[in-house]
Design brief:
Elements: H1 4-7, H2 10-20, E1 25-28, H3 38-48, E2 53-58, H4 72-82, E3 85-91, H5 103-115, E4 118-122, H6 128-137, E5 143-145, H7 160-167, E6 174-178, H8 194-207, E7 212-214, H9 227-235, H10 243-267
Parallel strand pairs: 1-2, 2-3, 3-4, 4-5, 5-6, 6-7
Helix pairs in contact: 4-5
């Protein structure tokens, strides 16, 4: 991301939030591209601004040495014991290696259910069938799919990739993140990405506003758009959403998920009390 030392900070995020009327956000930490202390950095920001930030920790993401190695659930348990987490993120490589069908993935979702954690998944459509199967076994675990499930604009709404993501609408606990639309676009800089908005319209019909969650993808998105543009692509350019829909997509849906999972965490005792930054 550009100018990471000044423009990719939590202080800059707070500035953008205040400027654009965003009251709260979840931050997905990512120890990538020399950013190896990101977990601790985000945890400190969340502790300093508990009314503004909530934290998703990364777990065995595609860039990590632990990607799809044994004991993922143990690593998630350690993260949940160390930090005050709203959820965790798992970014998958493009090729489906079958991990979501493994006992390892099953154990991770079982722990997410036990701890009341939301799961954020970055995955291409090739993973959707396996994700449907796994999510169906854990109906109380909300699963957020990054960037509309990474359906490429090029194939349009009739593509096999789009059909895979639309099929996941049949699983009630699978949600779509309306963020990072440039990842789906043929030309990442082609704001407001009309072809991707057309895909979003089709997904809106399948999922409904109550299963769509806007996100800025800040600061990575600043290579292609401003924070304000990441918001206005939904608020201004999605004419198929009415005011009630926008209320849900621009915060209401995620707010409800966070509140429900918080209630679950309060009623399910952890193996150990949170420590450290928590």
């Amino acid at each position: 991301m550009p100018d990471a030392l000044t423009r990719a900070t939590c202080e800059q995020l707070l500035y953008e939030m205040d400027l654009n009327g965003v009251t709260q956000t979840t931050i997905v930490s990512a120890s990538i591209d020399g950013n190896h202390d990101n977990l601790g950095y985000v945890a400190e920001a969340c502790a300093a601004h508990p009314d503004r930030f909530q934290m998703f920790a990364e777990l065995d993401c595609a860039w990590a040495d632990t990607y799809h190695s044994p004991d993922s659930a143990d690593r998630l348990r350690e993260l949940a014991d160390t930090y005050l987490l709203a959820g965790f993120a798992h970014y998958l490589k493009e090729r489906n290696d079958g991990w979501l069908r493994s006992d390892e993935a099953d154990a991770v979702f079982a722990l997410a259910q036990e701890r009341g954690l939301i799961v954020s998944v970055g995955a291409t459509p090739t993973w959707q069938a396996d994700l449907r199967s796994l999510a169906s076994r854990y109906p109380s675990v909300p699963v957020l799919c990054q960037a509309l499930g990474l359906v490429p604009e090029a194939g349009g709404t009739g593509s096999r990739e789009c059909s895979e993501v639309l099929a996941s609408a049949d699983v009630p606990n699978i949600f779509l993140k309306v963020c990072g639309l440039h990842y789906c676009a043929q030309r990442a800089w082609d704001y407001p990405w009309p072809g991707v908005v057309a895909l979003l319209s089709t997904m809106f019909d399948a999922y409904g506003a109550s299963r769509l969650c806007w996100g800025s993808d800040f600061p990575a998105s600043t290579r292609y758009c401003t924070f304000r543009q990441s918001l206005e692509v939904v608020r201004t350019h999605c004419g198929f959403m009415d005011a009630e829909d926008l209320h849900l997509v621009l915060g209401g849906t995620l707010q409800s998920l966070l509140a429900e999972q918080r209630r679950r965490r309060e009623h399910v005792p952890a193996d150990r009390p949170p420590r450290g930054i928590a």
